[in-house]
């Protein structure tokens, strides 16, 4: 099973790019971020024609997350994170698909800091950690997939000294991400590429793509049940070089079959 995350930076404006990548990569499940589309304008028909069912949580002009599946039905389990009832930003969507709990998330950027946007980011991180612990405690196979807007280490950014004051890289945010991992999650891309500089985002400015001046901010975190099945994790960085593309590239994991489930089926 192949599960991917992709910040499309506008699902309607980048639809040709998204459909091209889906046709070439053929992921089974995809988490999208930054739809920048109200619910009624989400391109469900075009995605259905491409073979994907969809569940989405849109917002006009900003934010928005979705889960796509070509591996069966998607059953929504949670829309929005608990803990802040007045929060109307569309940043979290969770569902069961193909035997896995999939959480699609778009963590706040947090800039400028200090200020209310940074405070909101830290609160959102706390709410995510609370839900993530509940998911771990369930013992189910779970993946947290999305744009975390976190650069975890110096290894994950071109010229880290230039980012020391940015909300993606300050100690409070990096520590929050580390605490999340300490719950028992596996950072799949880093697990498979422990010594590499590997990026998922390249700014549109200053020829960042051409210079490979990137950041790793899109992550796939696996619960212990899924970490045991991890086979591969990669970035489809070539997509960043396509015309009219997002400033992010798709990131994906490949999981081995669930042999435990097969044994259970045979024994029933």
UniProtKB/TrEMBL annotation:
Protein known as: Exodeoxyribonuclease III
InterPro entries, sorted: AP_endonuc_1, AP_endonuclease_F1_BS, Endo/exonu/phosph_ase_sf, Endo/exonuclease/phosphatase, ExoIII-like
Highest taxon of the lineage: Bacteria
GO molecular function: DNA binding; double-stranded DNA 3'-5' DNA exonuclease activity; endonuclease activity; metal ion binding
Native source species: Novosphingobium subterraneum
Similarity remark: Belongs to the DNA repair enzymes AP/ExoA family.
Annotated gene: xthA
Family matches, as CDD domains: ExoIII-like_AP-endo (cd09086)
Classification via PROSITE patterns: AP_NUCLEASE_F1_1, AP_NUCLEASE_F1_4
Cofactor(s) essential for the protein: Mg(2+); Mn(2+)
Keywords: Hydrolase, Magnesium, Manganese, Metal-binding
List of residues binding Mg(2+): 7, 34, 147, 149, 247-248
Gene3D superfamilies, per database record: Endonuclease/exonuclease/phosphatase
């Amino acid at each position: 099973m192949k599960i991917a995350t992709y910040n499309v930076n506008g699902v309607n404006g980048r639809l040709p790019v998204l459909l091209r990548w889906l046709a070439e990569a053929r992921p089974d499940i995809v988490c999208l971020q930054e739809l920048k589309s109200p619910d009624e304008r989400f391109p469900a028909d075009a995605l259905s024609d491409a073979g994907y069912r969809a569940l989405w949580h849109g917002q006009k002009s900003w934010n928005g997350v979705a889960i796509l599946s070509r591996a069966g039905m998607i059953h929504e389990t949670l829309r929005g994170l608990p803990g802040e009832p007045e929060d109307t930003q569309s940043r979290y969507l969770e569902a069961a698909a193909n035997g896995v709990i999939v959480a699609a998330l778009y963590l706040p950027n947090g800039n400028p800091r200090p200020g209310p946007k940074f405070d909101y980011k830290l609160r959102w991180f706390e709410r995510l950690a609370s839900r993530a612990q509940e998911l771990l405690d369930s013992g189910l196979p779970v993946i947290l997939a999305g744009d975390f807007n976190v650069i975890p280490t110096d290894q994950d950014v071109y010229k880290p000294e230039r980012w020391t004051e940015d909300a993606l890289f300050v100690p409070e945010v990096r520590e929050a991400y580390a605490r999340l991992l300490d719950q028992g999650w596996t950072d799949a891309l880093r697990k498979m590429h422990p010594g590499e500089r590997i990026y998922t985002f390249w700014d549109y400015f200053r020829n960042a793509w051409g210079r490979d001046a990137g950041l790793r901010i899109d992550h796939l975190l696996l619960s212990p049940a899924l970490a045991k099945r991890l086979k591969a994790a990669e970035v489809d960085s070539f997509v960043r070089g396509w015309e009219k593309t997002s400033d992010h590239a798709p990131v994906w994991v490949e999981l081995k079959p669930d042999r435990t489930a097969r044994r259970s089926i045979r024994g029933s």
